[in-house]
Specification:
The complex is a heterotrimer of chains A (465), B (177) and C (233).
Chain A (H helix, E strand, L loop, with lengths): L7 H5 L1 H8 L1 H4 L3 H27 L14 H12 L1 H13 L5 H18 L2 H4 L26 H34 L2 H11 L6 H34 L11 H27 L8 H32 L2 H11 L3 H13 L1 H6 L1 H4 L2 H28 L14 H24 L5 H10 E6 L2 E6 L11
Antiparallel strand pairs in A: 1-2
Helix pairs in contact in A: 4-19, 5-7, 5-12, 5-18, 6-7, 6-11, 6-12, 7-9, 7-12, 7-19, 9-10, 9-11, 11-12, 12-13, 12-18, 15-18
Chain B lengths: L5 E8 L2 H12 L8 E4 L18 H26 L12 H28 L19 E8 L2 H12 L3 E6 L4
Helix pairs in contact in B: 1-4, 2-3
Chain C lengths: L4 E6 L8 H9 L7 H5 L8 E9 L2 E9 L8 H5 L5 E4 L4 E4 L9 H5 L6 E2 L26 E2 L5 H13 L12 H5 L5 E5 L6 H6 L4 E2 L11 E4 L8
Parallel strand pairs in C: 1-10
Antiparallel strand pairs in C: 1-8, 2-3, 4-5, 6-7, 9-10
The chains are: A mainly alpha (465), B alpha+beta (177), C alpha+beta (233).
Chain lengths: 465, 177, 233
C-alpha cells in the first residue's frame, strides 16, 4: 500500500489548488472588463446589422441568383464544426481514459455548447422571413400544417436541438463536483447560485461511483449524436442536385473536417485560458503536444478526404462538375490556395515538429491558421458549386457585403462573450478531475530514477481487500 | 432505520490509511457495509476505505428511454406524413430514410434526457429538503467517514473506533448518509 | 376533372425577342429589380430567355432558350422545402408555390437545376400610378419569399370556374399563360397533356421534342422542339 502523503494531491494542497484553478471566478481584472466590452460591442454591431437586414430585406447581403446561400450558411457550418471539439475531445478522452485529459475537458465541453449556440442562430438568421421561423416546428396550430420531415433542414432542426440539449447536459453534469467545491468555498449570491446548481452533491462513495457511471454514459451517448449532427448538416448540401454538392462522401468528410476544426479550436481556447488565467502549471507543454499530435492526425485525415473527393470529380470530368473544378483554377483560385495553404501545406510540416507542438505561441498560431483554412474550405463548399451550377446562363460570382462581414465578426465576438461570461461565473477548469488525477499520481523509484506513476483500476474489477 | 433512533457518527481523517483502518474497525463492531461510507473530494478507489458493489441499474432506464424516444420520433414523422399527405418530388408519402434519421435523433434525445434524470435520482441529487450528512472540510483534503448507527451503545462504540484510528472531530449528526 | 398542364416551346420559331418575359412580368405583378440589382443577378423575371452562343466553323450563332418553370413531375424543389411551401398540386399536376407559407430558406432555389426560382430580396414598391397596373388576380409578394412561374395558375383557375359554371370541360386553347398569349411567332404552345387531342399532346409526340437536363430525372412538363438543321436553315 502506498503512503498517500506522497501522492501529488497531498503535496499540492487542495486549497492552493482550488485557488489556482478558480482564479477566473474569484478575481475580476480590468482586462476582463475590456475584453468583455469589446466583445459586446462587436456582437452588438452584428446584431444591429441583423435587425437592419430583417427590417429591410435580404437584399442588403451579397446574395443573388444562383448563389442563394452565402456567408450565413458558411458560418453555420463552420460553427457547428467547431462545436465538435468538446464532445469529441472530452468524450473520447474520457472513454479512452487518456491520462492527460483532465485540464482540457471543461474548456472543450464549454466550447461545444457556445459554438452550438452561435452556429444554431444562423439557420434562423438566414431565413427570408425569420419572424416566421416557427413554421418549421411541429406543433398543433391554426395553420393546420406540420413541417416536411423529408427536408434536410428539418433534420437539422432535430439534430441541432438534440446536440445542444445533450452538450449542455454533458457540460453541466461534468461540472457538478466542481460546483460543489465552489459552493463550499464561496459566499453571497455565488454561494446561492452554486448551491442550486450543485444539486446537493457531496462526494460519498456511492455518489462518486454512480456519478462516474453516468459521466461515461453521457460521453458514450454524445459521440454518436455529434457524428450524426455534422452528417446531417452535410446532407443539407449532399441532397441537392448541385454539381459539387451531390457527393456521397460528404457525411464522413464533413465530420472529419469538424473534428479538425474543433481540435484547432480547443488549442486556441486552451492557449487563451492558460495565458489569461495563469494556468501554466496545469495546461503544460505536454497537453499542447498531445493536442498537436491529434491535430496532425486530423490534418492528414482531412487531406485524405479532400483528395479522395477531388480525385473522383477531377478524373471523370463530367461537364457539370468540370466547370466547378475549372473555377478553382480561375476566379476562386485565391480562396482555393488559401484553403490548401492553411489547411494542409502549413500545418502538416509544422505539426510534425515537436518543437512547434511544445511551443505554446507556435501551436496557437497554427491552430488559428487551421481555422482560417477551415473557414475557407466551408466557403469553397458553399459558394463555387452554386456559382457554377447546372445552367451556365445564370452563372454569377458572389462577394459578401458589410452586413455579412459583421456576422463573421459578430459570431466570433458572441463566442468570446459567452466564454468570458462563463469563465467569470462557472468553474472553467475541471477541478475534480484534476484533483482525481493528482490523487492517483505518486512518484515511484525505478532503479536510479523517479517516475510519476498513475494508479488506475481496470474497470469492472474492484480492488482486493 | 426509523427516524429518531438512528444517528450518523462522523469523523475526519487526514490520510486514506487512517480512514481505512477506522472503516476496518467499524466493520468489526459489527456494522453492515452499507451503513458506512466516506465523503471525499476525490473518488476513492472501491475497497480503499469502503466498498460498494451493489448493482447500478439506471443505465437500463436509459436504454428503455432510447426506445421511448425512438418510438415518439417515429410516431411524429409517420403521423405528419399521414395527416398531411402532400406529394413532393414524386416521392412516396411515407419515406423511409428521413424517418430513420429523425427517429434516431429522437432516440438519442430520449436517452440523453433519461440519463440526466435517472442519474440525478440514482445519485440522490436535487433532494434539497432532505438533511444530508456533510462536512465542508473535505475540500481541504480530509476524508469524512460516516457510520449510520443506533443511538446509545452502538453510537458510543463507533465513535470510540474512529477516535482510536486517528479521527478528529468525531461527532454524532442527524441526517441521512 | 384532373388536368396535366404542359408547355412546348418551339426553338425554331423563337426569335429571342423577349415579349414573353414582358408579358409574364405584366401578368404576375413581377417587380422591377432596377439596373443595379439586375447587374447583381437579382432580376425578378419568372421567365428568362437564356442566350447561348455556339460557334460553327466560321459562324457564331445565338441560341435562345426561353426558360419558364419546368413544373417537374419529380420536382427537386418540393422535397427540400422544410415547411411544404412548395408541393405538387394533384388536380392540375403543377408545382405549386404558397407564398404565405414560405419562410425563405431558399433551399428550393438551390435544388432547382434550371434555376427558375427567384427570391424577393426587398419589399418592392409600385409608386403611384404604377400600382394601377397590378393584376388583381395575383398577389404582391412580401420580402423574403420565393416565387416562380406558375403556368399562370390564375388563368387556369379562372378558366375552370368558367367551365364549371357553363357545365363543360375546359377547351383546348382556352387557357393561355401570358407568355403563350403574347409570343409573336407562336413558339409557346400550352395545353392539357391529359387530353390526347390537345395541341400540346400532339407536339409532345414530335420527333424533335427534347427536355432540358433530362438525365437528372426531374421529368419536366415543359418541353422544347429542337431547332431544325440542314441546308438553308
Amino acid at each position: 500500500m502506498s503512503d498517500d502523503s506522497r501522492n501529488h494531491l497531498a503535496r499540492t494542497g487542495e486549497t492552493a489548488l482550488y485557488d489556482e484553478l478558480s482564479r477566473s471566478n474569484r478575481v475580476t481584472t480590468r482586462s476582463w472588463y475590456v475584453a468583455t466590452g469589446i466583445a459586446f460591442l462587436v456582437f452588438a454591431f452584428g446584431l444591429g446589422a441583423f435587425i437592419y437586414m430583417m427590417a429591410t430585406g435580404m437584399g442588403v447581403t451579397g446574395l443573388n441568383r444562383p448563389v442563394f446561400w452565402g456567408v450565413m450558411i458558411i458560418l453555420f457550418v463552420f460553427w457547428i464544426g467547431v462545436s465538435h471539439s468538446g464532445t469529441l475531445i472530452s468524450a473520447i478522452l474520457r472513454i479512452t481514459q487518456a491520462s492527460w485529459r483532465a485540464p482540457v475537458l471543461r474548456g472543450a465541453e464549454a466550447m461545444t455548447v457556445f459554438a452550438l449556440m452561435v452556429g444554431g442562430l444562423f439557420p434562423i438568421m438566414h431565413l427570408g422571413r425569420n419572424w416566421r421561423f416557427y413554421y418549421i416546428i411541429p406543433y398543433p396550430s391554426e395553420r393546420q400544417l406540420w413541417p416536411n420531415f423529408r427536408s434536410p433542414l428539418v433534420w437539422d432542426m432535430v439534430a441541432i436541438a438534440t446536440y445542444l440539449t445533450g452538450s449542455i447536459l454533458f457540460l453541466y453534469f461534468g461540472m457538478i463536483p466542481d460546483l460543489a467545491v465552489a459552493r463550499d468555498r464561496s459566499t453571497g449570491w455565488r454561494k446561492r447560485l452554486y448551491t442550486v446548481l450543485a444539486a446537493g452533491f457531496r462526494g460519498t462513495h456511492a455518489e462518486w461511483r454512480r456519478y462516474h457511471v453516468a459521466s461515461t454514459l453521457f460521453a458514450v451517448l454524445i459521440i454518436p449524436v455529434a457524428v450524426s449532427v455534422h452528417s446531417i448538416v452535410s446532407w443539407d448540401f449532399a441532397m441537392a442536385l448541385v454539381p459539387g454538392w451531390h457527393s456521397t462522401i460528404f457525411a464522413p468528410y464533413f465530420v472529419a473536417g469538424a473534428i479538425y476544426s474543433g481540435i484547432a479550436g480547443v488549442i486556441t481556447v486552451m492557449a487563451a485560458l492558460r495565458w489569461a488565467f495563469k494556468l501554466e502549471n496545469h495546461l503544460t507543454e505536454r497537453h499542447f503536444d498531445n493536442l498537436g499530435k491529434l491535430l496532425l492526425t486530423m490534418t492528414l485525415i482531412w487531406g485524405y478526404f479532400y483528395f479522395a473527393e477531388f480525385l473522383t470529380t477531377w478524373y471523370s470530368r463530367l461537364p457539370e462538375d468540370w466547370a466547378l473544378i475549372s473555377s478553382y483554377g480561375g476566379h476562386y483560385l485565391p480562396l482555393f490556395s488559401l484553403m490548401l495553404l492553411c489547411n494542409f501545406l502549413i500545418p502538416l510540416p509544422l505539426l510534425c515538429l515537436k518543437k512547434i507542438r511544445r511551443s505554446i505561441p507556435a501551436i496557437f498560431a497554427v491552430s488559428l491558421v487551421v481555422n482560417v483554412g477551415m473557414w475557407a474550405e466551408r466557403a469553397l463548399i458553399v459558394v463555387p458549386p452554386l456559382a457554377r451550377r447546372n445552367d451556365p446562363s445564370i452563372w454569377r460570382n458572389y462577394f459578401p457585403t458589410w452586413v455579412e462581414i459583421s456576422y463573421i465578426t459578430g459570431a466570433l465576438a458572441m463566442f468570446a462573450l459567452l466564454y468570458l461570461l462563463f469563465s467569470k461565473l462557472l468553474p472553467v477548469m475541471a477541478i475534480s478531475d484534476i484533483k482525481d488525477h493528482l490523487f492517483r499520481t505518486t512518484d515511484r523509484t525505478v532503479g536510479g530514477t523517479v517516475v510519476p506513476s498513475v494508479a488506475d483500476e481496470e474497470s469492472g474489477k474492484g480492488g482486493t481487500p | 432505520m426509523s427516524a429518531g433512533r438512528g444517528v450518523v457518527v462522523v469523523g475526519l481523517f487526514d490520510t486514506v490509511d487512517k480512514a481505512a483502518a477506522a472503516a476496518q474497525a467499524l466493520r468489526a463492531l459489527p456494522l453492515p457495509e452499507k451503513n458506512v461510507t466516506t465523503i471525499s473530494s476525490v473518488a476513492l478507489p472501491d475497497g480503499a476505505v469502503v466498498s460498494d458493489r451493489g448493482p447500478i441499474r439506471f443505465p437500463w432506464i436509459v436504454a428503455v428511454f432510447w426506445f421511448v424516444g425512438a418510438a415518439a420520433a417515429f410516431g411524429l414523422t409517420l403521423t405528419t406524413y399521414l395527416v398531411y399527405p402532400m406529394i413532393t418530388a414524386g416521392k412516396p408519402i411515407t419515406t423511409v430514410p428521413p424517418t430513420i434519421i429523425v427517429t434516431y435523433e429522437g432516440a438519442m434525445l430520449g436517452a440523453l434526457l433519461a440519463t440526466i434524470v435517472a442519474a440525478f435520482r440514482s445519485i440522490g441529487l436535487g433532494r434539497f429538503r432532505t438533511k444530508k450528512v456533510f462536512d465542508p472540510r473535505i475540500h481541504d483534503g480530509m476524508i469524512a467517514l460516516c457510520a449510520a448507527v443506533d443511538t446509545g451503545e452502538q453510537e458510543r462504540r463507533a465513535a470510540e473506533a474512529m477516535r482510536s484510528a486517528g479521527g478528529t472531530d468525531v461527532r454524532a449528526e442527524e441526517g441521512v448518509l | 376533372m384532373k388536368h396535366k398542364w404542359a408547355m412546348v416551346i418551339d426553338m425554331d420559331r423563337c426569335t429571342g425577342c423577349g415579349a414573353c418575359v414582358v408579358a409574364c412580368a405584366a401578368e404576375n405583378n413581377t417587380p422591377t429589380a432596377g439596373e443595379a440589382d439586375a447587374a447583381k443577378g437579382r432580376l425578378m423575371h419568372w421567365l428568362r430567355v437564356s442566350r447561348y452562343w455556339k460557334r460553327e466553323g466560321n459562324e457564331t450563332r445565338a441560341i435562345f432558350v426561353p426558360t419558364p418553370c419546368m413544373h417537374c413531375e419529380k420536382a427537386p424543389c418540393e422535397i427540400v422545402c422544410p415547411v411544404y411551401a412548395t408541393y405538387h398540386d394533384e388536380d392540375d399536376n403543377l408545382n405549386a408555390m404558397v407564398y404565405n407559407r414560405c419562410i425563405g430558406t431558399r433551399y428550393c432555389a438551390n435544388n432547382c437545376p434550371y434555376s427558375v426560382r427567384v427570391f424577393n430580396w426587398w419589399d418592392y414598391k409600385w409608386e403611384k400610378p404604377l400600382d394601377e397596373q397590378l393584376n388583381p388576380d395575383m398577389s404582391v409578394r412580401s420580402r423574403g419569399v420565393m416565387e416562380k412561374c406558375t403556368y399562370c395558375i390564375q388563368r387556369i383557375r379562372r378558366a375552370r370556374e368558367t367551365a364549371i359554371s357553363e357545365l363543360r370541360e375546359i377547351r383546348d386553347g382556352e387557357v393561355l399563360p401570358a407568355c403563350a398569349q403574347t409570343c409573336p411567332p407562336g413558339a409557346i404552345v400550352f395545353g392539357d397533356a391529359a387530353d390526347p387531342d390537345s395541341a400540346v399532346s400532339r407536339l409532345m409526340m414530335d420527333p424533335r421534342v427534347f427536355k432540358l437536363m433530362e438525365h437528372l430525372g426531374t421529368d419536366p412538363r415543359t418541353a422544347y422542339l429542337k431547332k431544325q438543321r440542314g441546308p438553308g436553315r
